[in-house]
Amino acid sequence: MQSILTSWFVQGMVKATGDMWLKGWDERNGGNVTLRLLPEEARAFAADFYAEPRVIALTQPAPALAGDWFLVTGSGKFFRNVQLDPADCLALLEVDAQGLSYTLHWGLCNGGLPTSELAAHFQSHAVRKQATQGADRVIMHCHATNFMALSYVVDLDPARFTRLLWEGSTECLVVFPDGVGILPWMVPGTDGIGRATADAMATHSLVMWPFHGIFGTGPDLDHTFGLIDTAEKASEVVVKALSMGGIRQSISTEQLIALGERFGVHPWQAALQAERSDVA
């Protein structure tokens, strides 16, 4: 019988967290990832579940996720170590029928709890589950370096910042036509930042936490990683352009419209009509 360690979802999380570490996005225990699983996907590995699983109350009720399963990164776990010991660094959870608690069926074998941002992730999962009719199954948070650096020097208007990234790389409008939501700086791990992130994710697949990092969502680990990677690459291009004396020419509004038509996406109109977010 196949071990849960060789399952597609554990192996996918090992690769995603390893890639994020190699990118320099997840220093120490920075960042967290949650993957929503179908019940049958998780239960296929019931032979590896704990005989006496822990049941832990949720800090925020999550009725929209009742009965859902999640593979999540653990609190205080270093992404660079996930590949060495997935059973210690990851956790497989089942939310109860009321959305008030979860059962830890596998993982965190040396003790501990899921990511401290679990409530924020669950709030965003609930929103994205509804917004995409269940298609989006991943929430990913990391400290993407250049994306975060831009939050210190450009106007943090969401539409103008989105326009800046769209002009930073041709593929950006195609990859995230719904743009980037931006929160004010908020204390992480709080109810407030979780609600604000979920509100922004109702209309955006990417959300900036200024001076902190990025939240991304998508249907699977590869697409969500690729989404953040694309925004980070555009941010790096913009950072380099600004360091070379500023942006002198870039993609025009007419060209962005043509790009959307060619790839069959509908760009966020506020960003399409906005001026680029220049250095403050």
UniProtKB/TrEMBL annotation:
<keyword id="KW-0963">Cytoplasm</keyword>
<feature type="binding site">
    <location>
        <position position="141"/>
    </location>
    <ligand>
        <name>Zn(2+)</name>
    </ligand>
</feature>
<feature type="active site">
    <location>
        <position position="117"/>
    </location>
</feature>
<dbReference type="Pfam" id="PF00596">
    <property type="entry name" value="Aldolase_II"/>
</dbReference>
<comment type="function">
    <text>Catalyzes the reversible cleavage of L-rhamnulose-1-phosphate to dihydroxyacetone phosphate (DHAP) and L-lactaldehyde.</text>
</comment>
<dbReference type="InterPro" id="IPR036409">
    <property type="entry name" value="Aldolase_II/adducin_N_sf"/>
</dbReference>
<keyword id="KW-0456">Lyase</keyword>
<dbReference type="InterPro" id="IPR001303">
    <property type="entry name" value="Aldolase_II/adducin_N"/>
</dbReference>
<keyword id="KW-0862">Zinc</keyword>
<protein>
    <recommendedName>
        <fullName>Rhamnulose-1-phosphate aldolase</fullName>
        <ecNumber>4.1.2.19</ecNumber>
    </recommendedName>
</protein>
<dbReference type="InterPro" id="IPR050197">
    <property type="entry name" value="Aldolase_class_II_sugar_metab"/>
</dbReference>
<comment type="similarity">
    <text>Belongs to the aldolase class II family. RhaD subfamily.</text>
</comment>
<comment type="subunit">
    <text>Homotetramer.</text>
</comment>
<feature type="domain" description="Class II aldolase/adducin N-terminal">
    <location>
        <begin position="11"/>
        <end position="239"/>
    </location>
</feature>
<feature type="binding site">
    <location>
        <position position="212"/>
    </location>
    <ligand>
        <name>Zn(2+)</name>
    </ligand>
</feature>
<feature type="binding site">
    <location>
        <position position="143"/>
    </location>
    <ligand>
        <name>Zn(2+)</name>
    </ligand>
</feature>
<keyword id="KW-0479">Metal-binding</keyword>
<keyword id="KW-0684">Rhamnose metabolism</keyword>
<comment type="pathway">
    <text>Carbohydrate degradation; L-rhamnose degradation; glycerone phosphate from L-rhamnose: step 3/3.</text>
</comment>
<dbReference type="InterPro" id="IPR013447">
    <property type="entry name" value="Rhamnulose-1-P_Aldolase"/>
</dbReference>
<dbReference type="GO" id="GO:0008994">
    <property type="term" value="F:rhamnulose-1-phosphate aldolase activity"/>
</dbReference>
